[in-house]
């Protein structure tokens, strides 16, 4: 052999350790009441993740109910738009998670967890939601499996994501408004955890991101791992190789982790996460946790965190409800510190521009969260050399966001 | 100020059950907090749990959440809380336990935090989001500074875990009486009796019961079930939230006095206790 293959760093694929640690991040910083429930969940997940019956049911539902595998789509006009004068430039592909049932990647995890909950004998499900996509996904699987469902959602988010609130109610879920703090995802998550502390013996908490205490970051990542696995085989099929760059938006970071994890051991693949910069870093109104935060503990895990000089968690700001969160999944913090993944941020304004661009050029209305990943193309496509294959996780569709966008770009109130 | 363990030992020798009121520092304001601590100390409190206001108090119910939010809005920070403790050193003899979530500790640096609180005279620490697994090295460092870190046991904790927690916990063992967050409840779950005897079977350390205890009758019940201490939080915090500060303090005095009398006398159902 003349070519030595790039040696994969196996460390990246062997996290977390038994204590739920990704390097120094992760862990279980929760009230004692929840510790036995987390152990129970860890054991159940450990038993079922390689159980053929469980996997068979999960995969069958991913196929028949969610509609997987979803396509890896060549975004021809977006590629042309960013082409350089000499004809080189990014070859842009979209992993179409927006085509999943319920319109986002969130259903992968909700489905995996509900199958676990059923096997654990839990009859009541709770979840938190920001943009409402995880709430809708959870309400959906609860309807499908006949389980009681309560979704915690901040009052501010209920206002800006009215469509999803109605969808959840249609699906039979109770949407519980949370007015504490800023009435956004952080507060909804805190309230969901308080519910879990209270009803832990009968209830499973379907946490919606790669955040929270162990085993959630690992388990949610694994349930979304299908995104990366499909992407790998679709890349092979389309051009016979690996992608060069993976691009995804990061709030808590579940869609990014789902895409990245399959490739963390492939050193040649650049992993880029894009956070919400809100009104800009200087304004202080942003949600750029990885790029501006410091390590801390929120919602049961150690990770980067937006906080003040007293260690009080500060408010995040983003036009996108799903990214409006002062924390981030611990594995992202680990990948950042290890230099394996890169994280940048784009503003509300950038995201809105990208939102419209993708609508017009590709006939795809992306979620505002997803629009952040697209927005980073502006910078990325200037910097790259040659014609690398870029895969963007098109994590969700934007029907839910048209009201918000109408208000911002046209001053029209559709509500 | 004596240490938590010493205080419990003194009480045990007299066959007394400890009364441990909790209040949130800085709500409604720092001055009232100081007054409240003195009042509690003079009305039968054996130690005081002082809550450091935090932005995301996961283990707390609405009453203490609201108190923390108000205190933070007033700009109360950790140094203010520590200043209070420091200034009270000469005025009260009972130990002060700090109740704080982990992030403010981590942000300051564990060692730095522990040294700082030890310097002002804090004797004990309760960190509700630092379970056994995350607490091991923390406990060692705390010991160096003479801070007793009390761990929590919940109704959901299996016996093996209870054993480990009891082994590591310092000062006393904090038994959470409910699956749930802090706050007043009309009744204490009957399984608490069972939990106390389970704990007694594995440890000699004192047991303090908290979360959901607000009334003298409930405190008596805890003592009769074998608790060495009762922690009453939200009931005090709610009284202090009174817009009329002086009236709030009077109510705190009354509640503390009634709780003390009740635990001492162990007489149940007397009207003045629930008044």
Topology:
The complex is a heterodimer of chains A (415) and B (275).
Chain A: E1 21-22, E2 25-26, H1 35-48, H2 52-66, E3 72-74, H3 76-81, E4 91-95, H4 106-119, E5 124-129, H5 133-145, E6 148-154, H6 155-160, H7 162-170, E7 174-178, H8 185-199, E8 203-205, H9 216-239, E9 245-249, H10 254-260, E10 270-276, H11 289-292, E11 294-298, E12 301-305, H12 330-337, E13 341-346, H13 348-362, H14 368-375, H15 377-383, E14 389-393, H16 402-409
Helix pairs in contact in A: 2-4, 4-5, 4-9, 5-7, 9-10, 13-14
Chain B: H1 4-13, E1 18-24, H2 30-42, E2 48-51, H3 62-73, H4 78-88, E3 96-99, H5 102-108, H6 110-120, E4 124-126, H7 132-144, E5 148-150, E6 152-153, H8 159-168, E7 173-176, H9 191-202, E8 207-210, H10 216-224, E9 229-232, H11 234-240, H12 245-265, H13 271-274
Parallel strand pairs in B: 1-2, 1-9, 2-3, 3-4, 4-5, 6-7, 7-8, 8-9
Features:
heterodimer; A: 415 residues; alpha/beta; 6-stranded mixed sheet; 16 helices; 14 strands; 42% helix; globular; disordered N terminus; B: 275 residues; TIM Barrel; 9-stranded parallel sheet
> Overall 3D geometry of chain B?
globular
Oligomeric state of this protein? heterodimer
The computed structural class of chain A is: alpha/beta
Largest interface by Cβ-Cβ < 8 Å: A-B, 39 and 41 residues
Query: What is the CATH topology assignment of chain B?
Result: TIM Barrel
Total discrete domains of chain B: 1
User: Roughly how much helix do the residues of chain A carry, as a percent range?
Assistant: 40-55%
SSE ordering of chain A: EEHHEHEHEHEHHEHEHEHEHEEHEHHHEH
């Amino acid at each position: 052999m003349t070519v030595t293959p790039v040696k994969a760093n196996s460390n990246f694929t062997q996290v977390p350790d038994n204590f739920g640690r990704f390097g120094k991040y992760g862990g279980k910083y929760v009230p004692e009441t929840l510790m036995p429930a987390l152990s129970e969940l860890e054991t159940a997940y450990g038993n079922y993740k390689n159980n053929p019956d469980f996997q068979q049911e999960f995969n069958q539902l991913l196929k028949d109910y969610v509609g997987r595998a979803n396509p890896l789509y060549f975004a021809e006009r977006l590629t042309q738009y960013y082409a350089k004068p000499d004809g080189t430039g990014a070859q842009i592909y979209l992993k179409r998670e927006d085509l999943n049932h319920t319109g986002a990647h969130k259903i992968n995890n909700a489905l995996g967890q509900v199958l676990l909950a059923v096997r654990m004998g839990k009859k009541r499900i709770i979840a938190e939601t920001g943009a409402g996509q995880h709430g809708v996904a959870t309400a959906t699987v609860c309807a499908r499996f006949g389980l009681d469902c309560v979704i915690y959602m901040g009052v501010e988010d209920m206002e800006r994501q009215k469509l999803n609130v109605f969808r959840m109610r249609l699906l039979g879920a109770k949407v519980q408004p949370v007015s504490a703090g800023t009435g956004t995802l952080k507060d909804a998550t805190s309230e969901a955890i308080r519910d879990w502390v209270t009803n832990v013996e009968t209830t499973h908490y379907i946490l919606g991101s790669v955040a929270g205490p162990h085993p959630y970051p690992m388990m949610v990542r694994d349930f979304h791992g299908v995104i990366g696995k499909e992407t790998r085989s679709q890349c092979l099929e389309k051009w016979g190789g690996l992608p060069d760059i993976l691009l995804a938006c990061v709030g808590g970071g579940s869609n990014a982790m789902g895409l990245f994890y399959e490739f963390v051991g492939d050193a040649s693949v650049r992993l880029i996460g894009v956070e919400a910069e809100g009104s800009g870093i200087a304004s202080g109104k942003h949600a750029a946790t990885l790029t501006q935060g410091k390590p801390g503990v929120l919602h049961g895990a150690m990770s980067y965190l937006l906080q003040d000089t007293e260690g009080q968690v500060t408010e995040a700001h983003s036009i996108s409800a799903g990214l409006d969160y002062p924390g981030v999944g611990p594995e992202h913090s680990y990948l950042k510190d290890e230099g394996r993944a890169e994280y940048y941020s784009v503003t509300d304004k950038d995201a809105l521009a990208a939102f419209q661009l993708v609508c017009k050029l590709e006939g795809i209305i992306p979620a505002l969260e997803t629009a952040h990943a697209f927005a980073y193309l502006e910078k990325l496509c200037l910097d790259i050399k040659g014609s690398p294959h870029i895969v963007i996780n098109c994590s969700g569709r934007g029907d839910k966001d048209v009201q918000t966008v109408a208000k911002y770009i046209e001053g029209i109130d559709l509500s | 100020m004596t240490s938590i363990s010493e205080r419990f030992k003194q009480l045990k020798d007299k066959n007394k059950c400890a009364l441990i009121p909790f209040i949130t520092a800085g709500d409604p304001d720092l001055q009232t907090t100081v007054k409240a601590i003195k009042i509690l100390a003079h009305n039968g409190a054996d130690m005081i749990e002082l809550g450091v206001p935090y932005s995301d108090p996961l283990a707390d119910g609405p009453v203490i959440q609201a108190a923390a939010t108000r205190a933070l809005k007033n700009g109360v920070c950790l140094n203010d809380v520590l200043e209070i403790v420091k200034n009270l050193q000469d005025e009260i003899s009972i130990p002060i336990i700090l109740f704080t979530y982990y992030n403010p500790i981590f942000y300051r640096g564990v060692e730095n935090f522990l040294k700082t609180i030890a310097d002002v005279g804090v004797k004990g620490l309760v960190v509700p989001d630092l379970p056994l697994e995350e607490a091991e090295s923390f406990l060692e460092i705390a010991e160096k500074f003479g801070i007793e870190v009390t761990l929590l046991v919940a109704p959901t904790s299996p016996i093996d875990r209870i054993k480990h927690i009891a082994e590591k916990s310092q000062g006393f063992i904090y038994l959470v009486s409910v699956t749930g967050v802090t706050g007043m409840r009309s009744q204490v779950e009957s399984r608490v009796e069972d939990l106390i005897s389970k704990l007694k079977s594995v440890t000699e350390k004192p047991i303090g019961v908290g979360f959901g205890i607000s009334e003298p009758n409930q405190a008596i019940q805890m003592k009769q079930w074998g608790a060495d201490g009762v922690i009453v939080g939200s009931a005090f915090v709610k009284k202090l939230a009174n817009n009329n500060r002086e009236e709030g303090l009077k109510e705190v005095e009354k509640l503390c006095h009634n709780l003390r009398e009740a635990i001492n006398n162990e007489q149940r159902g007397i009207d003045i206790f629930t008044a």
